[in-house]
Amino acid sequence: MKFFEYNGKKIFEKEKIAILEGYLANSPEEAKEITSKMDKSVVLKSQVLVGGRGKAGGIKFADTPDEAFKKSIELFGMEIKGETVEHLLIEEKADIKNEFFISVTVDRNNKKPVIMASSEGGVDIENLAISSPEKLIKYHPNPLDEFLPYEAREIARKMQVPNELISKLGTIIWKLFNIFNKYDATTAEINPLILTDEGLIAADAKLEVENDSLFRHKDLVKMNNYKEKELDFVKLDGNIAVIGNGAGLTLTGMDMIKLNGGKPATFLDIGGGSSQDTIEKALNMVLDYEPVKVIFLNVLGGITRADDVAKGVIDVLNKTPKKVNIVIRLTGTNEKEGQELLEKAGIPFDISMEKAAKKAVEICKSLE
Ligand code: GDP
Ligand code: MN
Q: Can you tell me the mean pLDDT for 224-244?
């Protein structure tokens, strides 16, 4: 799970890394009001989960509330690499003397965390790794040992910063590594870490937490208002909607329809561990797609529970005024419960994917 910058900064602040004064705005009016209350020059920062906002024009500066209002109108609704800007972080504009880069991530080749750092931080860090790799310091702490402050200071020394900064910079590197560990992160990054008259401050925050450990961080998930990934939905030119849990199974379902002489109208992958809500959402998506005559729902229950699937289907069929032709392949976890529910509701199903696909094609042909 990726954190929005403003949430990443809340965590940094909690862990005693300095950040700039800033507030979240949900509209140009709020941006204006916040700027007026702060009574200083500000930076308007688009809150999206992709990087490179600066280069994409997602960061603007304003010296007055009116300017903040005008510029935030340009930012709200802007698309950055497929994400729409819905919130702005309004931050005091810092007087930057220097920009550093520090990052902790997983080095998959070495099977260890790696700390990367450079005294040339800012927006062009990706290019720096190519043009001047010697300016990018890499250090692999021993994952079986405690990461000690002197190791962090050693990294700071290699960054060739002035002597008086080594200890302060080392402390922040040490804290960042501890954040990485404590929050089960896959990436914890500050770029730029800025030097101002007030000292070293995190002007940006990138934090990504391993999805498999989110159960340990429920409060963070809530704070970040994490939205589940959208379903993978592809519209095709046939008339049988194919829905499956998992991309491979969905593709196989499409093959089965084709083998039996039918034509898929959709590829819709509801993913593993689908809840009743997901099933309902998926069914409603294909019901809204006009060419669909028959729905072939292909579920192999693993983490997804067959009874949840059955409940979702029944709920949608009860609510829609449309006549729905649906064939379900339902097997796996809790299949007995699920099949019983479908039987009672009079909804055709089969435990064999081949047979269910064949039935879906037959129903479709009978409608022609
Ligand atoms: P990113 O492009 O998504 O990584 O967004 P950043 O938050 O890193 O901002 C991009 C760039 O905007 C930074 O590298 C800074 O050069 C500049 N910037 C951000 N905040 C401030 C600020 O408070 N004052 C000044 N002068 N520049 C800033
Ligand atoms: Mn940045």
A: 85
The Cα-based distances of 127 to 1, 53, 121, 318 in angstroms read 26, 16, 11, 56
Q: What is the pLDDT of residues 268-279, one digit of tens each?
A: 999 877 788 889
Residue with tokens 């809500």: 277
Which residues in 49-71 are b (16+ Cβ under 10 Å) and which e? bebebbeeebbbebeebebbbeb
Taking a 5 Å cut-off on Cβ, the residues next to ion ligand 2 are 191, 204
Amino acid 210 reads E
**pTM (2 decimals)?**
0.70
pLDDT tens figures, 52-103: 899 999 999 999 999 999 999 999 999 998 889 999 999 999 999 999 999 9
- Please give the Cα distance from 351 to 327 (Å, whole number): 11
What's the CA-to-centroid distance between 331 and ligand 1, angstroms?
Answer: 52
* Choice from 21, 43, 119 to test ligand 1 binding pocket (greatest atom count within 8 A of CB): 43
Give me the CATH code for the 232-366 domain, please: 3.40.50.261
Query: Domain 21-92 classified CATH 3.30.1490.20?
Result: yes
Taking all residues of the chain, what is their mean pLDDT, rounded to a whole number? 94
Q: Which two tokens stand for residue 58?
A: 């997602």
Domain locations along the chain? 21-92, 98-223, 232-366
Name the burial class of residue 119, with classes exposed (0-12), middle (13-18) and buried (19+) by CB atoms within 10 angstroms of its CB.
Answer: buried
The helix (H) or strand (E) run that includes residue 207 is strand 206-209
Closest ligand 1 atom to residue 50 Cα is 3
CATH class of 98-223: alpha beta
Six-digit token pair at 137?
């310091």
Q: Which of 75-89, 122-136, 305-319 has the lowest average pLDDT? A: 122-136
Q: Going by C-beta distance under 8 Å and a sequence separation of 6 or more, which residues neighbour residue 171?
A: 149, 152
User: Which protein residues touch ligand 1 with a CB less than 6 Å away?
Assistant: 43, 45, 51-54, 59, 91, 93-94, 96, 99, 122-123, 191-192, 203-204
Backbone phi, psi, residue 292, to 5°: -70, 125
Q: How far is the CA of 191 from the centre of ligand 2 (A)?
A: 4
Three-state SS string over 191-247 comes to EEEEEECCEEEECCCEEEECHHHHHHCHHHHHHCCCCCCCCEEEECCCCEEEEECCH
